[in-house]
Amino acid sequence: MNTLAAYTTVCLLITLDARLIPDNYSKERRALLDEETFTAVGGKLHLNEDETIVNDILMKWKMKELNPSYTNPQHFNFSKHYFSYKNDIENSKVYQIIRRMPKGAVLHVHSSLMLHPDVLVKLTYEKHLYACFADDDLRFYFSEATPDRPCLSKWALVSDLRKSSGDPVAFDSQLKNYFTLYKEDGEDYNFVDINTVWQRFNKVYYTIKSLIAYRPAREKYWTETLKQFYKDNVMYIEVRTGLQDLYELDGSRHDKKYLVEVYKNVTAKFIKKHPDFIGVKLIVTKHRALSIEHVLEALNLTRRLKAEMPDMIAGFDLVGQEDIGRPLTDFLPILSEAKDEINFYLHAGETAWLGTSADENLVDAILLGSKRIGHGYALTKHPSLMSAVMKKDIALEVNVISNVVLSLVHDVRNHPLASYIALGLPVVLSSDDPGAWSAEPVSHDFFVAFMGVASKHADLRLLKQLALNSITYSALEDESKTRLFEVFNKRWDTFVRDVISDECLLDTSVS
Amino acid sequence: MWHIIFILLFTYAKCDDNYNERRRELVERELRSALGGNTTLSDKENVVNNCLMRHKFDELDYAFDHPNEFNFSHHFFSYKNRIPTSKVYKIIKSMPKGALLHIHDMAIMGADYLLNITYQEHLYVCFDKPVRFLFSSNVPNVTCGVQWQLMSEARAAVDNVTEFDAQLRKLFTLVCDDPDKAYPSIKETWTRFMQYFNSAHGLLTYRPNWEQYFYDALTFFKNDNVGYVEVRSILPNLYELDGTEYDTLITAKAYRKIIRRFMKDHPDFIGAKFIYAPSRKVNRDVLAQYLVSARRIKKEMPELFAGFDLVGQEDAGNPLIEFVPQLLEAEDLNFFFHAGETNWFGTLTDENLVDAILLGSKRIGHGYALAKHPVLMQEVMAKDIGVEVNVLSNAVLSLVRDVRNHPLNIFLSLNLPVVLSSDDPGAWGADPLSDDFYVAFVGVASKLSDLKLLKTLALNSIKYSAIEPENKAEALQKFTRQWNDFVDNFDCSSY
Ligand SMILES: [Zn+2]
Ligand SMILES: [Zn+2]
């Protein structure tokens, strides 16, 4: 009996002992994990009482939505192509919270590809719009009479085509396919290579560009775009634009400055209606495949416009597929000459090719004093460049969905943003060309980054820090920046109150 | 006028010089601080390097212009048959690669080898799901959803043996024609991968086969110019025709017997050890038994027992934290933990990295998730923990698709103590090490990485091996002799 008792005690001790992690081990472990949290983006942010409640709600839903995928990874959307799950996003409670959350500024978007294709289709109902369908391609032109312009088939009034199609709904949905890479019938984009995707992407771009080169169409386009971004809780935008020449119905053309004025006036009108919208600035762009003379011309234009409308022009950038465009070194002389007068916001490292000239664009973007870097996708592979970025406080404009659609990464858990966040790099989230893949202005990008890329533990602090970063790293003058912070904080408080009082988010069945 | 232009040009050129200098400085600093960046090559090595890099650039420049044909952004199965035609591959194949430090014994030899075994006498098969095999003098007394039949009879009963064998062969490999369809997510991949082990198990753990198999595996390594290996083994119970089953110690002894025999036959081979690596999907009591076995084996053959690890899909198994109290008491065993073989950031699996480090793991298996943990990367560096990277395994087992997104390139650029290995090459029909080296070199590493990287990786594999300090010098000597042989006899035109 005694021996048995002793034996039981020993057994108990062993099992107890087996569960006991020594104090110093736990401490050391905690210290490492805490240091990681503290280092990460948002790690130093303090949440007040109400924010903590919102955070609890947010994280409850995040866990509820993520946990099932952990045991059944075949259902984990973010390891698949964006197109395969984009229509389900709306059902997510986490998304619904993110959508309502003020997101501050959007700092990396291209002017022609910001608007959802549904709205673009509505623009095709404008009078005098001609279309030329040829070779799987579509061009528009507004004109009183049949356009006197080359067309491989023939120009026809869109209204006529729509009528004669017999099925306007079907006609419109076909039209929509020209405005986006996303197709309802689920074309397989899974493993399409980067050059092919870019070809399709450029096609969409040229079609839309032809639609909004008409001055009245552009004004409507811009009004609608502002509406969508505002509705997505964005309060300020920096737009990359090549400043195309607008034309009137009679064929007369405006100069580039005219488009800047259109942006300015339409935005001013919008602000009158929505006084807590701060405004827009433009980053003038040129295609990186063009000659040095062309780029020089664009630099001079930027300089001139900046002198004339300083509050509208943020700076300069080079755009287009980085791999096949010219490397920044080609433009070094003219860029370094201009760098004291013009702020650069250069695309760099939007590539998967390590050790190539596209990859080395990161070096030049940094050395040329770029205020922010567009994408910087390749940066994780360059530790010394990363420390330069950190030291010079150069913000990275990360566009996760763009990188997926444009074929850089498949499973977003492999997106370098995870490392940037962990390292606490100055990151802002943006959406690049949300219209081209039928995404919401920026909420989808926030959602995918938050659920798919960031740590499972990443919470409201990350989201808030990302929003704050977008203001900090914007090109706004101090005074406007202060105002944007004010507007943001006010909206943030409202958001916090709304989430707390929203009964739909207080599902008690969830623990 | 001339004056002004001259001055402009002059100032411009001046600031340009400065720029170029700073640029070069930055680019060079990166190359120097990367893995292998500080190595210098001899004249003869430079000859090899020039040849290697010419072919590497040819391959990459073509792929850059034709990204749709860039193999490494596709599934390994879609290009694996074309690898042998690559000149870079051929050079790598003939290059001494040092040690193979992360490989599981049940998945080394490949489908044809296993198919061949099914022609042996006394083999029974159970066409259940998964299909299982067992050598036995009588009908096995083991449950089977259908019924056990003699393999020879099953084969004799079919009309088309070629077709039958082709179907059978599929059991022994994950390779298939349409991998994107067959493996849409990690779930399907691991399910299939586990079936592989179930089918291979009975074929290999038959005692006579086990011994032959491991001897053949060592030959296979040697032919791939691998000089030393540390095999992870669950040390399965071996069995005889009459149903006798042995315990783990006997399996370990079988290893010893074969390694001795192989070393006698091939004295230039550096050697082999094993890491006892049973399943992580167990409770604490079973782990306690594992640790007892490990101690027993270590005592019996300290020269072959390298250490201890836990295996199986990390996401689906128990996290290390569950076992920390027990493992802390067993640190004398030397740990080589799998950790961070996951895409799930911020989960318990992910945190295995923390415990692997705190438990004093000598090396970490995979460490795939490390790039998301800068603090842990520092620890790995400070404690000089070797990271065993298996690129093809991570690609096949659904962690990454385009290998250019594999974190290895981050590890390399940070000069983390990396070794390359192959995990389960037999399950996907890869070489013991050459395929992994090739894909890492051309697909993952920088375009500019050269022989310095390859040589350093090979040297690292010796450095971070479990070879006793007193034997390392000799191991290094053997490697150096092979390396010099390779360099001295190198003929670019023969590739
Ligand atoms: Zn962009
Ligand atoms: Zn492994």
UniProtKB/TrEMBL annotation, chain A:
Question: Which is one Pfam family of this protein?
Answer: A_deaminase
Q: Which reaction does it catalyse?
A: adenosine + H2O + H(+) = inosine + NH4(+)
TM regions (residue ranges): none
Q: Which residues form the Adenosine deaminase domain?
A: 193-486
Taken from the UniProt entry, a GO cellular component term is:
extracellular space
Per UniProt, the keywords (alphabetical) are: Hydrolase, Metal-binding, Secreted, Signal
Q: Where in the cell is it found?
A: Secreted
EC number(s)? 3.5.4.4
Signal peptide range equals 1-18
Chief subcellular location: secreted
Q: Where is the Adenosine/AMP deaminase N-terminal domain?
A: 17-98
SUPFAM superfamilies, alphabetically?
Metallo-dependent hydrolases
GO molecular function term, any single one: metal ion binding
Gene Ontology biological process terms, A to Z:
adenosine catabolic process; inosine biosynthetic process
PANTHER family, per the entry? ADENOSINE DEAMINASE, ADENOSINE DEAMINASE 2
This protein is called: Adenosine deaminase
Q: What is the lineage of its organism?
A: Eukaryota, Metazoa, Ecdysozoa, Arthropoda, Hexapoda
Automatic annotation (TrEMBL), chain B:
Stated EC number for the protein is 3.5.4.4
Show the GO cellular component annotation of the record: extracellular space
| SUPFAM superfamilies (UniProt xref) | Metallo-dependent hydrolases
Cite the InterPro entries for this sequence: A_deaminase_dom, A_deaminase_N, ADGF, Ado/ade_deaminase, Metal_Hydrolase
Q: Which molecular function GO terms apply here?
A: adenosine deaminase activity; metal ion binding
The chemistry this enzyme catalyses reads: adenosine + H2O + H(+) = inosine + NH4(+)
Which GO terms are recorded in the biological process aspect for this UniProt protein? adenosine catabolic process; inosine biosynthetic process
Adenosine/AMP deaminase N-terminal domain boundaries: 13-92
Signal peptide extent: 1-15
Provide this UniProt record's keywords sorted from A to Z. Answer: Hydrolase, Metal-binding, Secreted, Signal
Q: What PANTHER family does its record include?
A: ADENOSINE DEAMINASE, ADENOSINE DEAMINASE 2
Q: Which family does it belong to?
A: Belongs to the metallo-dependent hydrolases superfamily. Adenosine and AMP deaminases family. ADGF subfamily.
Name this protein carries in UniProt: Adenosine deaminase
* Source organism per UniProt: Mythimna separata
